[in-house]
Amino acid sequence: MSAIQIQGLRPLKGTVGIQGSKNAVLPMMAAALLARGVTVIRHVPEIEDVFSMMGILDSLGCKCSLEKGVLTMDTGAASGHRIPEEYVGKMRSSCLLLGPLLAGRGEAVTYYPGGCVIGKRPIDLHLYALKQLGASFFEAGGMILARVDRFRGARIRFSYPSVGATENAILAAVTAEGETEIENCAREPEITELCRFLAVMGARIRGAGKSRITVEGVKRLYPVEFLLGGDRICAGTYLAAAAMTAGDVTVIGTEPESLREPVFYLRRMGADISIKEREKEIRLKMGGRPGPVSLCTGPYPEFPTDLQSVFLAAASVADGESRITETVFEARFAAAAILRQFGARIHMEGQTAVAAGTYPLKPAVAEAPDLRGGAALVLAGLAADGLSVIGNCRHIRRGYEDLCRDLGSLGAEICWL
Ligand code: UD1
Questions:
Q1: For 220-231, how does the pLDDT look when each residue is reduced to its tens digit (9 = 90+)?
Q2: Active-site position among 62, 64, 116, 234
Q3: Is 115 touching ligand 1 by the criterion CB < 6 Å?
């Protein structure tokens, strides 16, 4: 199952339930290490990144299982402090374990992280936050050795609102001695959800979702049961797919507010969108070809970088010229060049992709360059006049539970090869 075949030009119609959020569950899995006992999270997506994080937790002595969306993590016998190199290379979020490991064991060993190949992706802000709280780091041959006697509350002011560094700072501060103030922190909905999860565990956090978070350290956290919310990037992907195929699609299970910017731009592209907040439903109807769009990615509440390539795929079939500017990751335009194989008329002007728009696209055989770029190519296949094959789909499986199942349920002619 490493390639996806798509017969294009089938309009998407129907309703799809959205998988649990990848970016919310990964820091929660790191947080589980802060309590002794069995933590259970429901509605967890069965994706490669979750399996990798389970692999790391198991290697630290936890017992993890994931069945029918129920993730069980027993930390009772966990005592390790080394994050194995094989997982660090696969998944950048492994560095989220630094805070909890240092908090619990006083030491941690890791390596420089991997994940999607989209720019330099340094971890200096993670290290800065943990240093402010009292940790020291020694680096040798790509290995990072970390130590702390006890985290102590401190003032952390980020030069950029990094999602992962904000999470690491919170994870380290929740059991620190005293109060921590985190300024210019990231405001992504996944951070708010992590704080909700930690609050159930017994943490004292104020200001989640704002750019200043205050954490009052507590002595102990407790294992909990928790229901994970829907993945806004997955929902945004399916809405963009509907917009490209003159579709009529309802996505259920994601907070509509978390998709405010993508919904705003889809409306600008001509989509008729209705929202039921309480039911967590977003319905998108597109009468014909989408109109062009100009947007710029940025930290939340701005437009999410994770939907940039997917919206570029949608812009590729728009009736006019679109401009999509990336400001979060400097090298996140790998999909742009590959979309040209589908006949998309895209050229780069610095950090801006300019798409002239053409419809339909031509079918192509292409390789997924990264997780979201891979999803963008699948969407291009949906709007192509014939049979396309996307290879290297291991990237896509890092974040989408089953793209073929979900798009197939909406009427796409799509299957795993
Ligand atoms: C998280 C998301 C990812 C999303 C990204 C931005 C998870 C598991 N992943 O990634 O899907 O695309 O937020 O919304 O939640 N940076 C530094 N130094 C650091 C850390 C980051 O310079 O120590 C830079 C990065 O290179 C990048 C920018 O800050 O240019 C944003 O990165 P960050 O917000 O940290 O993203 P991640 O947490 O890695």
A1: 999 999 999 999
A2: 116
A3: no
